[in-house]
Amino acid sequence: MKKVLKDFKAGKVDLKEVLERIRSLPYKDLDFAKIDNHRAIRKGFPETVFCGGKTVLQIIKIIEEMSKKNHNILATKADGRIFTAVKKIYPNAEYNEPAKTIVIRKEKQKTKKGKILVITAGTSDIPVAEEAVVTAEIMGNKVEKVYDVGVAGVHRLFDIKDKIFDANVIIVVAGMEGALASIVGGLASRPVIAVPTSVGYGASFKGIAPLLTMMNSCAEGVVVVNIDNGFGAGYFASLINR
Amino acid sequence: MKKVLKDFKAGKVDLKEVLERIRSLPYKDLDFAKIDNHRAIRKGFPETVFCGGKTVLQIIKIIEEMSKKNHNILATKADGRIFTAVKKIYPNAEYNEPAKTIVIRKEKQKTKKGKILVITAGTSDIPVAEEAVVTAEIMGNKVEKVYDVGVAGVHRLFDIKDKIFDANVIIVVAGMEGALASIVGGLASRPVIAVPTSVGYGASFKGIAPLLTMMNSCAEGVVVVNIDNGFGAGYFASLINR
Amino acid sequence: MKKVLKDFKAGKVDLKEVLERIRSLPYKDLDFAKIDNHRAIRKGFPETVFCGGKTVLQIIKIIEEMSKKNHNILATKADGRIFTAVKKIYPNAEYNEPAKTIVIRKEKQKTKKGKILVITAGTSDIPVAEEAVVTAEIMGNKVEKVYDVGVAGVHRLFDIKDKIFDANVIIVVAGMEGALASIVGGLASRPVIAVPTSVGYGASFKGIAPLLTMMNSCAEGVVVVNIDNGFGAGYFASLINR
Amino acid sequence: MKKVLKDFKAGKVDLKEVLERIRSLPYKDLDFAKIDNHRAIRKGFPETVFCGGKTVLQIIKIIEEMSKKNHNILATKADGRIFTAVKKIYPNAEYNEPAKTIVIRKEKQKTKKGKILVITAGTSDIPVAEEAVVTAEIMGNKVEKVYDVGVAGVHRLFDIKDKIFDANVIIVVAGMEGALASIVGGLASRPVIAVPTSVGYGASFKGIAPLLTMMNSCAEGVVVVNIDNGFGAGYFASLINR
Amino acid sequence: MKKVLKDFKAGKVDLKEVLERIRSLPYKDLDFAKIDNHRAIRKGFPETVFCGGKTVLQIIKIIEEMSKKNHNILATKADGRIFTAVKKIYPNAEYNEPAKTIVIRKEKQKTKKGKILVITAGTSDIPVAEEAVVTAEIMGNKVEKVYDVGVAGVHRLFDIKDKIFDANVIIVVAGMEGALASIVGGLASRPVIAVPTSVGYGASFKGIAPLLTMMNSCAEGVVVVNIDNGFGAGYFASLINR
Amino acid sequence: MKKVLKDFKAGKVDLKEVLERIRSLPYKDLDFAKIDNHRAIRKGFPETVFCGGKTVLQIIKIIEEMSKKNHNILATKADGRIFTAVKKIYPNAEYNEPAKTIVIRKEKQKTKKGKILVITAGTSDIPVAEEAVVTAEIMGNKVEKVYDVGVAGVHRLFDIKDKIFDANVIIVVAGMEGALASIVGGLASRPVIAVPTSVGYGASFKGIAPLLTMMNSCAEGVVVVNIDNGFGAGYFASLINR
Amino acid sequence: MKKVLKDFKAGKVDLKEVLERIRSLPYKDLDFAKIDNHRAIRKGFPETVFCGGKTVLQIIKIIEEMSKKNHNILATKADGRIFTAVKKIYPNAEYNEPAKTIVIRKEKQKTKKGKILVITAGTSDIPVAEEAVVTAEIMGNKVEKVYDVGVAGVHRLFDIKDKIFDANVIIVVAGMEGALASIVGGLASRPVIAVPTSVGYGASFKGIAPLLTMMNSCAEGVVVVNIDNGFGAGYFASLINR
Amino acid sequence: MKKVLKDFKAGKVDLKEVLERIRSLPYKDLDFAKIDNHRAIRKGFPETVFCGGKTVLQIIKIIEEMSKKNHNILATKADGRIFTAVKKIYPNAEYNEPAKTIVIRKEKQKTKKGKILVITAGTSDIPVAEEAVVTAEIMGNKVEKVYDVGVAGVHRLFDIKDKIFDANVIIVVAGMEGALASIVGGLASRPVIAVPTSVGYGASFKGIAPLLTMMNSCAEGVVVVNIDNGFGAGYFASLINR
Fold first, then answer.
1. How far apart are CA D34 and CA D36, in angstroms?
2. From start to end of chain D, where are the E strands?
3. Cystine design at B140: which of B109, B125, E175, H62 (Cβ 3.0–4.6 Å)?
4. In this complex, do B52 and D156 lie within 8 Å of one another by their Cβ atoms?
């Protein structure tokens, strides 16, 4: 920005152009959506397409715009119908069915040294966990996963103690009562990202019960993302992984 | 009841008396309160005085009525002011300050064989736990207590594994996120009674967070009583202890 | 555990094997699920398959793993499609349609002396009650059931007074306002397990109304499990039945 | 109204006066409050002063304005400080301390034939019940009251069966879980007005639990008023009593 | 009851028979449902079949049992599929499609003198209102209905002022914000029964918004029934209509 | 009104007619709906048909009645099926598919001077925004729209700063966390109408999260309408636009 | 801004100064608070001091900073203790006790033509209404107020019909059930700003009930501000008043 | 652990001692509290004393036990009364009054390279922010703080853009609507920890509004801790700072 201002002072660019350039840089306007090209620079990653509430046509157009740059693309909450449409145009698009993610690889990320460990309390939490896994991997992280660790059988958890101590960041995905986050948080010396899921029935209220459990965790070093937000957890884990 | 009916048929009692007797048996009417003498027979325990929302005068009158029978008396949620008033009339009344319970002993309960273990997650959960302890003891149970077991430091819990295996019934008292109940439930082979407490801040919402956690516990063999209801937990534990 | 340590000291097993053995004992890892064989020893019952949120393939694989041991198997929240798949492989699998449970019997449980009484407030609460009945029976309990006892017509309840006095444990299943639990709790001298159901409309809020009613029950000796959690009630009842 | 229009046509009053008279008729404007004198005609009762959130001065002024007519006056939610101030000016003002009501009698109501029965579940519900009693009595009803009927001891309820059958309208006041309304509703053949109270602790949530219980009552013939709204129940009971 | 006891004393009936008779009187046990024949006597109306959550077969069996007595039958929340099944067996069954009610007339009710007025705020509230209308009519009441009165156009309300003054009981059915109940309550001198409906969108939360509005109505003489509970309103209105 | 009264005095109309005329003036009664013709005069716009919860037949009849006057007609929450039916009768009916609105133009509105700016946070908020746009345009406003402005990329917002300063009224439509309203409110010097949408997942709770955000906006000059209520926002914006 | 850039280009200011000037312009940093001087230009009004949660010292310092400019100052939610401290330094400070507002006048606002009408449902809503009145007046508006209009007595409302038609903007302040906003909205042809208040008891839940009522208002032209936010209503009303 | 096992095998320690040693290692049991000395090793920090719900005596005893090791001690939610008691025994104890924290320094932490930036939305959020600052500093972090950044005046935020880009971790503390977290999240390329505060009034519901806002943040890289949990945010920030 300072450079632009200096150029401007040096007479290399005029006032109108200064304003223009600032404006045109960061994103591309598709009328119904604005593609934030700047983000790849700012955050080391292009804007993700959240497919919920968008038409297939809108999604395709957004991906087409994104493809002009050479960044990896990640689409979340994408059902099979969307993947079929994307696959036709981008044959190398990869689909993770439980995670409902589409990945189009355009560049090779340098792999980070630290490992991210993704743990689920139950089998039903796997889809949300997989969204976190896909996100973390496309951002250049080594990911290890251990599913159905439970709380009811705490001894299962102790078998993975070494993995907990090895990991640089830990993501805990749990529905029902979500107690797993507190216990892992108590064992771990590294940051824990808790993801409540809408798995459960009765008084779990579509994820409110595990969300509250996790918010109130008496273990330090535990933070929380939105219900079912595997993407957010994977993204944040990547941000703090070295 | 059949006996009364047979006496009635045999002409030993008249119709009016039959109805009268049925009526007079089970309780004593104090106008503002009805003392349920029958309960001591039905449940092995006199009706407890829940002091919340009652005037000191009402409480004294209720205890006076209860004292005519030879059963132990338990008053819960009794502040110091109430105890002072009761103590004047019943010098042998005992006060447990954190628990806010008054006990007046009139008979010796036979001690049961099984042991009830009362565990708290934190130091602040102790008052509710003590209410459970007092209740269980007055009902003739051996009670062992372990406080501030936490979840954040799971290794603390493992030190009391033997106590968990020894106990016949376990009461888990926890505020904040209430995850302790699930973990104990996963370890124990005996029934667990979970008591959410209103301890905590922020999104614990005066006990809603641990209540939901406990309701959704994925460990079998866990049931829940009302927030801060130490009495209910101690009572139920006594019912199922042998 | 002490035995293993002694063997280790005696040189019968080496350090690595000690750690290994501890680890391999308690469960079998299916990658997406961990089968807790240990539980049958710990609790007298194999881990139940909660079918909600699992694929048919996952359920089949879990049951296959479980079948290697000689314990009874119980699958809950299993729809007809799941039963059809299971039946093909385990022809002796039994289906309880309203309860949505599958049972595969592999061993004969010794029948306990005490009787468990299962009561529903309405006709619509029967499916949840049946889940409790199936669970309690497979765990070796005599179960008696009385459905549609209501509260609106209290005289119905009084006709089953004898059954209430006979039972060793009572399960009350009720939706709408859930008042039945309090009334049965007031009559009974034995423990009452209350199961709120999501039956009702308007301000019953999918089971919140009866859940709150039951949590606040002014009758002692009443505990609560999660909304629609018939399994949990049957399991707990079995734990405390003699 | 028709009379005014006819007078107007007959030239006895002019257009401005017609509009004026309509306006001046129904109430007296105190600037900060409007006294609805019309109500005594419309409903057989003057507007009640709800003292919550009003200054003592405002309350005195409202009562002074009301006193110009010859109707009885009822002030609700009036603490001792307010009564002291009112008493100075209206020496015949009567205070019901638990109910927190002030009554100033100016006319004798004709007593209605039917009886209103007011029942409470516990001792702590008495203040709300008394508000209902005072309201119903000042409106000319015979009121019978039975307090602390409970639900935990259903036999207590059966002792008052005759009173339930005798009453023309029944008011049930209950906190905690509020189940009493359903049971009385099931027994009674006359209308039942349920008043949830904020008595209780833990998950009773200041009256939400009994409110939901009562809303979902499976007994027909039960309607609900606001939490702690003894006045509303007494008023409605009087409206439907004959 | 006294009669039975006297007969028993006179030796006309033996002890077993006394108990038997009491039992057999009030209802018929269908195993999955208990038909409360007594109610027709107690309340002047047979038990209504609430069809929600019941199978068609269960409903048919309940109606068959009810048909043995000579009372009118009312089924609520009955979809078209249920009516088709009922119609085959009871050709005189009448269906009110918006109300989802089935009526089978077996006796002629004496018509009461007072009129019940049913008002809706909007067009979408009509189904709930019709349930109230059907209920009130089968119980022998004259019913007048005015739909879509609204609040936004208060002048519409004033056109029906005469109807409001004429009616003996008024039922107000409203979703959205439910303000109509307060306004009608302010105009009327007769009791108003408010029925919140789940009509609306956004922050009406399936009827919670109008429910709260009605609970907090500052107009005296307004009581509330459950969300969408047209039947309850019609039933209660009939109870208090003369 | 004064005129009618004068005519009445002059003997031109009789008493009955006076009352009659007052009544017949403002609306047309369709039995299931009351068409408020008066509104076009009062508010410069005919009553809108809210199609939710109405049958196609009812909607057609309402539109037919409205068509007798010469005002524009707007139907909201109209699905394709409804439009097909309306189109057959009113070939000039226009459909906005995402907005689910039908417009039938009968008169030309004078265009106002001020501009209304409609901004959405995301692509998924467009349907609600379009409802606001259609409403504002049919009421004679110039509308400018900018979609997918986001909050995550605040620089996008700064590109539209000039549009924000140009607009006379601003409508902000946002789901998820709804923060956009506060930011626009902080930038703008003109009134901002915030519309929370039910777009989002997890803890957005169908619009509660953005609703609360907007209610608590610390920026002055921000008011809120109901969740997804694009119509209400467009209507209010038109009211205050000059 | 363009001017600064041009000066910069012309060499009149250097780069550092450009950045400095931008920074220093809009507000003054007090370390614990930032005074937004720019606002008086942007919105025609200085930033208001919201006293909630601030120490007296902080408030004084903020006011001192603000006083350097010649704009009027408004402090809201200021208790008597705060006013005493402010009065010592600014003797012309005016206090509105029910509203808890402090006003320090420094300039004379030009009075706008349109009138703002402030209506309350009850006497207890007056403090919130007064906050709106003070805010609107200091911003140069003519304000008319009518308090305790109620809903229970709708005829009171009709007496102020002319005032409703005269006003350019209407503010409706109501607690309890908040229905007044809908009714005024239905009568008025000008915009209505609804302010829910925390006045009420029981199920009004500190303002949630009237908030929901107002959000769901079926009257067009009604928008809502936060509970008890009289300031917000007065501010917005002033923005749209001409 | 392996060492202990080897010693055991080598006969250096007996079986009882093995079990004993494992037990005695990680914490010191105070009966009412367990001091987790192990934590300083595991997490680089001793267990913090959360003073809420603990007596002064308990707190003193806990600190005394902790003091035996040479780690820094942090007490949170400590009111002045607690500090006075602690100060007497530990004269070097430091008190941060708004933060309500006590710090006793025993060792010098190595300062980390990265900077933690703590931002508040308003002046009233400062106490929670200070708790985060104290926590982060005692854990060896450089902390920069900017308070009262607001959202209403977004230009204030842009002045601190450089600080946002400089920081390695950012903590955003905000009450009211909590929108600041999203905006900072959108600007920053480093992780953002959002802390909702209970500051606000009306519909902010003691922190629920900002909590939901932050949970639903559409900006990636934002995680949330409990309401008012400044400590948790500071702790987590330190964990991920380098």
1. 6
2. 28-29, 34-35, 49-50, 73-76, 94-96, 101-104, 115-120, 142-146, 169-174, 192-196, 222-224
3. B109
4. no
Residue F38 with chain E: CB contacts under 8 Å: 153, 155
Q: What is the pLDDT of residues B118-161, one digit of tens each?
A: 999 988 999 999 999 999 999 999 999 999 887 666 667 767 88
Contact G144/H at CB under 8 A: no
Six token digits for residue B234: 């101690």
**How far is Cα C211 from Cα C230, in angstroms, rounded to an integer?**
14
For C26-30, the CB contacts below 8 A with 24+ separation are C26/A153, C26/A155, C26/A156, C27/A153, C27/A155, C27/A156, C28/C65, C30/A148, C30/C61, C30/C62, C30/C65
F-chain CB neighbours of A198 within 8 Å are 202
Does B198 sit within 8 Å of D203, measured CB to CB? Answer: no
Instruction: Say how many CB pairs under 8 Å bridge F and G.
Output: 68
Q: Tell me the pLDDT band of A103, cut-offs 50, 70 and 90.
A: very high
pLDDT at G80 over 50: yes
Q: How far apart are CA H180 and CA H224, in angstroms?
A: 13
CB contact under 8 A, A228 and F156: no
Provide the β-strand partners of residue H103: H74, H94
Taking the C-alpha atoms of residue C118 and residue C132, their distance in angstroms, rounded to an integer, is 8
Phi, psi torsion values for C57, nearest 5 degrees: -60, -45
Mean pLDDT calculated for residue range D211-217: 89
Q: What does residue B224 show for φ and ψ, rounded to 5 degrees?
A: -125, 145
With CB atoms and an 8 Å threshold, state whether C223 touches B224: yes
Cβ contact D–G (≥3 pairs, < 8 Å): yes
| Chains near C (3 or more Cβ pairs under 8 Å) | A, B, D, E, H
pTM of the entire structure?
0.85
- CB count in 10 Å sphere of residue H41: 12
pLDDT band at D12 (very low <50, low <70, confident <90, very high): confident
List, for residues G141-191, the tens digit of each pLDDT value.
999 999 988 776 666 776 788 898 899 999 999 998 888 998 898 888 899
pLDDT for G90 equals 95
Q: Which of F198, F138, F147, F201 is nearest to F172 (CA)?
A: F147
CB B174 within 8 A of CB B184: no
Residue H29, SS3 per DSSP: strand
In chain A, what residues touch B210 (CB-CB under 8 Å)?
216
According to DSSP, residue F215 is labeled: H
Q: Residue E90: phi, psi to the nearest 5?
A: -120, 85
Would the CB atoms of F209 and H202 count as touching at under 8 Å? no
**CA closest to C22 among chain A residues:** A159
- State whether residue B236 is helix, strand or coil: helix
- E strand or H helix that includes residue B32: none
> How far is residue D67 from each of residues D41, D105, E79, F163, measured CA to CA in Å?
15, 10, 57, 62
- Chain F segment 35-94 residues within 8 A of E by beta carbon are 36, 38-39, 52-54, 58, 77
- Beta strands at B28-29 and B34-35: parallel, antiparallel or unpaired: antiparallel
What token pair was written down for G52?
A: 């909630």
Are the C-beta atoms of residues G36 and H106 closer than 8 Å to each other?
no
Q: Inspect the interface and report whether the beta carbons of F52 and E201 lie closer than 8 Å.
A: yes
Q: Which residue of B has its CA nearest to E5?
A: B15
Those of residues 205-224 in E touching chain D at CB distance below 8 A are: 211, 215-216, 220-224
